[in-house]
Fold Electron transfer flavoprotein subunit alpha/FixB family protein.
Amino acid sequence: MTVLVIAEHDNVSLHVATRHAVGAARLCGGDVHLLVAGHDCATAARTAGRIAGVAKVWLASAPQLAHGLAENVAAQALELLAQEAYTHVLAAASTFGKSVMPRIAAGLDAGQISDVTRVVAPDIFERPIHAGNAIATVQALDAIKVLTVRPTSFNAAPLDDTEAIVQDMTPVDDAGTARVVAVERTVSARAELTSARVVVAGGRGLGSGAGFTVLEPLADALGAAIGASRAAVDAGFASNTLQIGQTGKVVAPALYVAVGISGAIQHLAGIGDAKVIVAINKDAEAPIFGVADYGIVADLFDVVPALVTALQED
Ligand code: FAD
């Protein structure tokens, strides 16, 4: 058995989700290989080779692979899958993985198993359904199992000092169906939402974009990433990159502070692995209190500044 993991990177550094994906790949059994498809991405490939358990890194470098365009990365992976005997191909269930993997599955004429949270056996996997209210155990019958894996459900494989062999492969031609016109990077000093140890998230209760900024001093005091409910995103209070939940990001922090969030099941689907949940809501009947470890029934515009003052006094 040999498992191919599609690496997510920015040509220089690997996204930590890739190490979580390798953690899942190791549980499938057999060797683990990584595909690093990018441009001038030898540094990312070398780091990939240092992930514990990775036996080989395939490196495809060309301008058409520079931006991780799903059409080209999937074609590169399919080329490799046609040349080498793999039993599994997987990636993290991130925006990148969710875009690349269905194309690979279609190319293989295989069924994809999405958002895997547990590897039961090499061909049997668990995945959440109904917004995380039930867990389905599914068996993959295809010769090559195509998976996306939920990063927060698998430990990140550590980096070690041994470097796996990095083997160049011929890059595929540009599929020509999409091109990157511009890249706008959000620069933030805050921790990345999906890997943050503390997350402060705001909902519709914040009332406006200006109201949403009340969370910033609290996030600063806690060293937290900021997240949002879908209602807050849809209302334009926060960027959609901050959305947590069924159709947003899945987080697994040690501490999750939900501010002005009611606790709809679609939101809870994104915070099931949070260790400690604190809820601030003026409605004592809000469903968020059903999952919270600590709850404060009060107006958030009173409580949040008071918490910041208390934390600063500490
Ligand atoms: P509300 O439900 O309006 O809650 C606002 C809360 O703020 C209330 O509980 C209120 O008591 C409290 N509040 C108001 N003012 C104050 C104050 N001054 N002080 C303290 N508390 C106050 N939602 C997500 O979050 N993520 C998803 O990924 C997601 N995916 C979805 C997918 C589908 C297919 C569907 C149908 C829905 C999805 N939703 C998702 C939407 C979800 O159903 C809810 O509508 C949404 O989570 C509600 O957001 P909210 O809690 O911010 O808003």
The chain has a mean pLDDT of 96.
